[in-house]
Specification:
Layout (H helix, E strand, L loop, with lengths): L6 H10 L1 H22 L4 E9 L11 H18 L2 H11 L5 H6 L1 E4 L6 E8 L2 H22 L5 E5 L14 H26 L6 H8 L18 H10 L1
Helix pairs in contact: 2-7, 4-6
Amino acid sequence: MKETITLQDVLKIVRKHMLFIMSFTLFIALVTAFISYFILQPIYEAETQLLVNQKNIDQPYIGVQQVETDLRLINTYNIIIKSPAILSKVINKLDLDLTPEILMNQITVTSANNSQVVNINVEDKQADLAVDIANTIAGVFQEEIQILMTVDNVNILSVAKLDEEPEPVAPNTTLYIVAASCIGFILSAGFAIIVTSLDTTIKTEQDIEETLGLPIIGLISQISDANNRSPKIASRKMRRE
C-alpha cells in the first residue's frame, strides 16, 4: 500500500465512505439538537442602564474636567456594582437562595469608551427573575453609592422589562447543531481515512502493483463453459480429452 496519501486518495476515500460519514454526521446533529432543546435549560438576559453625571447646583455648566472625573469613576463603579456590599443587599431584598459569589457570575457590567452610561446585564434561568435582579441592583447601587463615596451622580437611565415572550440568549441551538455537524463530519471522515490507511490487505491488482512496485502483465479470470457448468466440471472434461 502507499506510504503517503495524496489529496486525491483522501477524496476517493471520502466518496467511498460517504454513506457512513453522512449518517454519523446526521446522528451527531440529532443528538446535539435533542440535548439543546430538551436537556439544557434556557438562559435569559435582562439589562438596565445607569447614567453617571455629576450634579452641581452651584455650577450649572459642567466642564470637560468634570466629565473626565465622571469617566474615571465609572471603572470604580463597575467594581462596586459586583461587590458583596451591593449584592448582599440585593439577595436580601429578593430573598434569593444564592451567595454573592454565585450572583456575581450572573452579572456583567460594561461601559462604552468615553461614555457615562453603565450597562448592567443579568443572566438567569428565569426571565422574570433576571429582570428583578437587574432592576434591584440598579436601585441598591444608586442608594449605597451615596453612602460609600458620598456622591450623588448616578441616575437610572433605563430599567429592565419583561417581554411577553422572552427569548433565551443561551443555548444557541443553531450554532451548536452547525458546530456538532462539522465536528461529526471531520471525525467520521478522519476515521474512514485512518482505517483505510491502516488496512494492508491486498484486494485488487492495483494493490499488488503498488506493493511490489512491478507492472501487471496479465490477469487470471474464472473459467466457465457456455452451458453454465461450474469451472470444476469444465476442467475435468479438459483433462479427459
